[in-house]
Amino acid sequence: MAPHTSTHSLLTPLLSTFRSLSLSTTTVTVRKPSTTTSRQFTTTSPLHAKPSGKDKADPRISLIRYHLQHPKTPRPLKLSRMRALRHWTIHRAWMLARRTRQEGEERELKRMHQSMHNACEALRTFDAPGKKDAGRLYRIAMEKKGIFGHGGIPIEYARAQTDTPAKEAWNHDWVR
Questions:
Q1: 126: which residues sit within 8 A by CB, 6+ positions away?
Q2: The whole model's pTM is what?
Q3: 64 or 46: which carries more pLDDT confidence?
Q4: Is 136 left (phi over 0), alpha (psi -120 to 50) or beta?
Q5: Where is this region: Disordered (predicted)?
């Protein structure tokens, strides 16, 4: 008992200094509950939960485990630091090449659109203003006669555009 009391007598002043320091420097902050904080998934207490949850496994989890732990499933890559750096470098180079290709395609489309716009503007201003036929070539170019077939309509008007599928997916009685 003697060693315990001496250790206790040494620790008591030390603990009291720590307590006084922690009490003097600690400030209590009270946070109001925010509407953006995440809530618990359920409000049911654990005592009211179903007791037989472990004997019946979720089939989705079983399928995921089966496919992840199947012997023929390859193990995930564990890359060393240098290999990960090479992978990251190659990935960034690929993304850069893909972006430059997409930007080139976008520039080409923009150039073609600008060329069509310039051609239409040239057709519009071809005739002298004030004449009866001013802009006649432009109006003819903008007409959509015959491009959808004989008496056809644009495909956008063939069926009303909806977010949901039709009530009857296929009309089997339809004949031409």
A1: 137, 138
A2: 0.40
A3: 64
A4: alpha
A5: 31-56
137 within 8 A of 122, measured Cβ to Cβ? no
Element counts in the chain: helices (H) and strands (E): 4, 0
Report in angstroms the alpha-carbon separations of 26 from 13, 14, 20, 97: 20, 18, 10, 55
pLDDT in tens, 117-146: 999 999 888 887 777 777 888 888 888 777
- DSSP one-letter code for 167: S
Give the three-class secondary structure for 96.
helix
Q: Which two tokens stand for residue 80?
A: 């060393």
- 124 touches 138 (CB < 8 A): yes
